């Protein structure tokens, strides 16, 4: 007698379900690898590739020094632009007098914006020299010599003030350099400690587990370092801020 619908023995469905589940169950190392893949966010991927904003990697003192250097570079660029404009005024025969006047105003504006403290000091000395010549001129009237002498005293005061300001800025920059070295050393020491923790954890794992664990731990260390660096920048003392030069 043939029994329909009994192509398998009793209990075979349960057996199939159990073994099917086991077949679909991923090994621990595969789960860990997938966890690492999901865990690494876009920010983490950028950190892994080194594709990050350089400012985010600088300490407060390094940022202040970088800002100083950027200001110097910007002023140098404006001087270069002014020189190019004045060269065109001298050589371009197609320019009308009105064109030259407009271009010269642009060049003068750029030169003024590009002036450094050293440029201002040199200008003050030149202007002082003009008054000194007047005070020593044989053709100058007595009252003109007195006025010239007063202007010399005036310029001496401005020169002294500017030189004092320049010295204060240089002293501040030296302090920033020292602070930057210390901040960088502190970050390197913290990074070394984190690396030692990672190495110790990886030594205890093996195979694919070690590879996935290394990915997770390294990302965690990078994220922690970025967070700590941001906290340091927020808590930076006013002494770590750059003194920008006057314009």
Task: For the structure shown, list the relevant keywords.
247 residues, mainly alpha, 8 helices, disordered N terminus
Explain this structure.
The relative contact order is 0.12. The protein starts with 11 loop residues before the first helix and ends in a 13-residue tail after the last helix. The chain contains eight helices and no strands. The chain has a domain at 117-179. The model is unreliable at 1-44 (pLDDT under 50). α4 packs across α7 and α6 packs antiparallel against α7. It is mostly helical and 247 residues long. The chain has helices spanning 12-24, 28-39, 42-49, 60-91, 97-113, 117-136, 142-203, 207-234.
Task: Describe the protein's topology.
Blueprint: H1 12-24, H2 28-39, H3 42-49, H4 60-91, H5 97-113, H6 117-136, H7 142-203, H8 207-234
Helix pairs in contact: 2-8, 4-5, 4-7, 6-7, 7-8
